[in-house]
Amino acid sequence: MAETPADSGTPQYTSGNIQVLKGLEAVRKRPGMYIGSTSSRGLHHLVYEVVDNSIDEAMAGHCTRVDVTIHPDNSITVVDDGRGIPVDVHPVEKKPGVELAMTVLHAGGKFDKSNYKVSGGLHGVGVSVVNALSVWLEVEVQRDGARWHQRYERGIKVKELEKLGSAEGTGTKVSFKPDGEIFTELVYNFDILSSRFREMAFLNRGLRIAIRDERGAEPVEEVYQYEGGIVSFVEHLRKGRQAIHDEVFYFAAERPEAEIELAMQYDSGFTENTHTFVNNINTHEGGSHLTGLKAALTRTINDYAKKNKLLKKADDSLSGDDVREGLTCVLSVRVMEPQFEGQTKTKLGNSEVRGAVEGAVNEQLAIWLDENPRAAKQVIEKSLQAARAREAARKARDLARKKNALEGGVLPGKLADCSLSDPTLTEIFIVEGDSAGGSAKQGRDRSFQAILPIKGKILNVERARIDKILSNDEVRAMITAIGAGIRDDFDLEAARYGKIIIMTDADVDGAHIRTLLLTFFFRQMRELIEAGFVYIAQPPLYRVGKGKEEYYAYSEDQRTEIVKRLTNGKGDAAKGLNIQRYKGLGEMNPDQLWNTTMDPQTRTILQVTMESAAEADSIFSRLMGDDVEPRREFIEKNARYVRNLDI
Prior knowledge:
Number of helices: 19
Radius of gyration: 28 Å
Largest sheet: 9 strands, mixed
Strand content: 15-25%
CATH superfamily of the domain at 15-224: Histidine kinase-like ATPase, C-terminal domain
Distance between the termini: 49 Å
CATH topology of the domain at 15-224: Heat Shock Protein 90
Low-confidence stretches: 109-116, 120-124, 402-409, 639-647
């Protein structure tokens, strides 16, 4: 908690600034309306709501550090050195400000723009919802030379606000334990929280965010602080791809409609990696700010290319896709009254922001191109190469369409399709190897399960342009089978299956093929992952038999437990015990594959989700990019987490 700042002439932050809009009654009855779900996503959202309050204090210039702790019982503590929630009595409600913030929905200082010019809080529901959905919550405030404390249980205060004594500095400490009556999942994922807080630290230059996990034998802690802000973010995202110009292009501009920050750098890769944020909210559905950015990039780069006679013909022009190939970009805008649209409320709707972003990028990028002619020429050359590849890809698509028309739209020959056509009922297994594909075809339920065998390791799309991608037989078979197109032509509603299940061997090669497939879906059909269509099959590692008894183990621990049970604790050396290690899917007969891996009643499949597109982007770049060093660093750092990998 921080020292109390001297009077700087800024508006005073007291309970009078807190406006009360609505009560708390419905939160426990319909929690999904307020936090999205009562599963893992909603559980983590509780932490974000508390931390967002601290981030808002940082954006207002009053907070320099946030500390988050996961305790052994999966309770959470968040401490900041902001101004501290007001504790004086509200002039109308006649309750301390902190009590209103904790017990009344939509009660907070964010609605008073003299205290918060902009704020995050995507749903704006605030810490009161966290309070309502927790078994207990305790808040401690330091301000006005004193320390104050109050405790609540399931949203109801246990006692009045209590003054504990004198204290130096200011800040707020909130501790809470999620309610098992509400949530189906009560265990926090350190990586999910850590990824979110790293993103927040990038977006708020200089803010220190620490997360500590006390649940293991030894505490684990990560500390994030980036003096470079979103410039450091771009460098983090690009790691694994070779930059084609040395410095990250960066500018910050203030317009009446928005505060705008942009950082971008081109690399030798072939994918665009643009991430946009509004008031720290990841707007992965885009919106008006992204539209303005794209328009400005296309116009400014074309203007520069024509002015400097870098195009073959005077009337030639580069497309938006051309000028964004190999671009890593972070756009962060801060808007007084953001209006969010879209399915997940992460698409910016403010039309005035488009013009503000477009004007600022046009102006600043034109200056940068003029002042950096060598970098500008490299960017134009990169875009021209992309244009040539785009034309080759167009011809490949046209050829494929003509061929399909001649063949009557025939699906890939090796696809064993299902008889049902309703995507909500169907699933396709992408299976490693013809042998496993044969077993899967024999063992499946033909009514709703389709099988597409693929040969070995498919093309690494991280290192290939679109024309090369479309000329690869295995990739083309997947695109045709799924039926939804790729990239800008992708249409989720046209997908022929509701589940795309990756089924590979449980060895090093299988892991590599799975990563190649995930890279393909992330780069070419990202909407499949965002919509929850992509899954990973979990075939067993072992078959353990004794006499007529037969069990399957999906992990080393499970195998050990089964062996102990069958041998009364004697272990592997016991007589009559048969343990088979499955090196590949092809070693299982059709019945075994169905029973263990394909039967919806008995199988385990993992849904591929994406908490942070930016972090996923960074990981794929490191694992699958051209640069060896970041890949080595990633493997060394994460090797200790790997299980069931044959060396």
